[in-house]
What we know:
The chain has 2 domains: 2-245, Beta Polymerase, domain 2; 246-305, Methane Monooxygenase Hydroxylase, Chain G, domain 1, CATH 1.20.58. The model has no long low-confidence stretch (mean pLDDT 81). It has a 7-stranded mixed beta sheet, sandwiched between helices. Helix 6 packs antiparallel against helix 7 (286-305). The protein is α+β, with helices and mostly antiparallel strands. The longest helix has 68 residues, at 206-273. It has helices at residues 31-41, 45-51, 109-115, 127-162, 166-198, 206-273, 286-305, and strands at 2-8, 11-15, 23-27, 59-63, 66-78, 84-95, 100-104.
Amino acid sequence: MVTYYFTINGKVTLIDEYRDGCWINVINPTEEEISSVTELLGVENDYIRAALDEEETSRIESEDGNTLVIIDVPFAKKESDGSLVYITMPMGIILTEKAIATVCLVENSVVRDFSDGLIKNVQTSLKTRFLLHILLKVASKFLQYLKQIDKLSNYIEKQLHASMKNKELIQLLGLEKSLVFFSTSLKANEVTIEKVLRGRNIKLYEDDQDLLEDVLIEIKQAIEMSNIYSSILSGTMDAFASMISNNLNIVMKVLTVLTILMAIPTMIFSFYGMNVSGLPFAGNWLIPFGIGVVVTAVAAFVLLKKKMF
């Protein structure tokens, strides 16, 4: 899908066809759409195909006056069991002399905010400034999702305190995996933004410099938050694993004690159940029964003193 947007009266507005200074939004394009966009922008097909590769890493490159910036964008998707999983996907931003284009395999909330006109005072004709606003929005989305992960992990932790269930543990494992994705993507984005900050690939103006520094600060904050939440979640998972192991040991200890106590009367009654003669008190069943009760009670008292249960 290919759509065109242009800033009209200070608001990004959908337009019917391409014009110079517009923003081209490309989502999961067909081969015909790829050929059409590359012809309009005057770039190679690889510029668009690179952004459609799920394994593409964040980077920046320039050739013949055209610049490709690939950054990782956060996503929140719902699994079949209703749990939320956070992942990242590459998004390409292509800057040419005539226009700017964004390319992604799936629609994301960053692009949606711009296309819906939620970002005010953005000029599509100011391509460098528009790129920096996209980078700032990406960093803000990372921070937003990190806060959601923190709240979700706290909620799941409270559920686990009430009852140990595999479902909650699996959800915590999914959040821990999401933080690993976020941390890796944020570090790659940081390297790309630092390259942009040097101004070798993209010409920066004074106002752009200040905005880019804000983007870099947001990215660094997101990296720090991701590392902190990852450490906390990892410690929480280890603590709950230890608790589960400890609970299992307690259960096994109680079952062992009960087995010992039940074995004492069983052994005594087994002797008197054999078809042999000469056993003491064989004629009175109350005495062996009393012996079994007394020995069991003594064993229970000893085990209790040793705090076996």
